[in-house]
Specification:
alpha+beta; single chain; 13 helices; Arc Repressor Mutant, subunit A; three-stranded antiparallel beta sheet; Enolase-like, domain 1
Length: 296
């Protein structure tokens, strides 16, 4: 158990580190009006907090920064809600009560507002759509004698479409395309997107499609891209520019952050069972990623 003094010091370290983005030393804390302790006392307790795993030493500075254990303790026991910030909650309640918005639109608006209020990047990632969503229908609509559109619909009601240009010299006719669509429906309807992607890359589809069209590689590529687009549209990021306004991040750090914020990387992080995930009592998850922590 931590004493009340150590709790106050840990809280001060975390909150000031969040503001300054720099390691926190005992002299800075001693100057805070609500910490009526000497610099030596604070330094002693910071060493104890470090030994218990709540703080960690920064080798480039004499100050200390919060550890993952420290953040978890703070979120569960020390974080307080300031009275002046309570009215902000009504902004979220207003969004939730908008009757013309569906669940997905509400989540997106809340995350955008949260990013604006906190100056942090917020991320929305849906369920692992590859493994839970199934193909409902694949359809073809003729736009003109030279153009058609392939529609792919999944059981969530989401839709992807791709334009196809009909070229007579490649024997790509509407009749042949309809035969291909009929075959694809028989094979893929009811299959998950993940399974459908596997089947599309297999020889069975390739051999069947090339019986009807010569440009089977291009057609398979169009289908593959359409299925992948369901995943790309399954996540949104707000407040990305905040990383460039924070002096704590150097160019290398920003590049690394941009890499993990790529939609494919995010899906790997959130849906990979090998990732270390710290579950907190209030259902907040902390996902350590090198020098970052993703809070979800």
């Amino acid at each position: 158990m931590l004493s009340n003094r150590k709790k106050l010091i840990l809280k001060a370290v975390i909150e000031n580190y969040s503001k300054e983005s720099q390691p926190i030393g005992s002299q800075l804390l001693a100057g805070l009006p609500y910490l009526n302790f000497s610099s030596a006392t604070i330094r002693y307790d910071m060493v104890k907090l470090e030994k218990k795993g709540y703080l960690q030493k920064n080798h480039k500075s004499s100050g200390r920064v919060p550890s993952l254990k420290g953040y978890i303790f703070y979120l569960n026991n020390l974080m307080t809600r300031q009275q002046k910030k309570i009215p902000i909650l009504s902004l979220f309640e207003k969004i939730i009560q908008e009757k013309d918005l569906n669940k997905e639109q509400i989540i997106k608006k809340i995350l955008k507002l949260l990013s604006n209020l906190t100056n942090y990047a917020t991320i929305n990632i849906g369920s692992n759509i590859l493994k839970v969503s199934k193909i409902s229908k694949i359809d073809l609509i003729l736009v003109s004698s030279e153009q058609a559109i392939i529609f792919i619909i999944i059981d969530k009601g989401n839709l992807q479409y791709q334009n196809i240009f009909l070229e007579k010299d490649k024997n790509l006719t509407i009749f042949n395309l309809k035969k291909v669509i009929e075959f694809l429906n028989n094979l893929l309807v009811g299959q998950t997107l993940y399974k459908s992607l596997e089947l599309i890359k297999g020889n069975e589809i390739k051999e069947k499609i090339q019986k009807y069209v010569k440009c089977h590689k291009q057609l398979i590529s169009i289908l593959y891209e359409s299925f992948c687009n369901f995943v790309s549209n399954n996540s949104n990021i707000y407040g990305l520019t905040e990383f460039f306004q924070n002096s704590f991040f150097d160019v290398r750090t920003i590049k690394e952050m941009m890499f993990i914020l790529d939609k494919r990387e995010l899906n790997k992080i959130f849906f990979s069972s090998s990732e270390t995930v710290c579950q907190i009592n209030n259902q907040i998850r902390l996902i350590p990623y090198k020098q970052f922590i993703i809070i979800s």
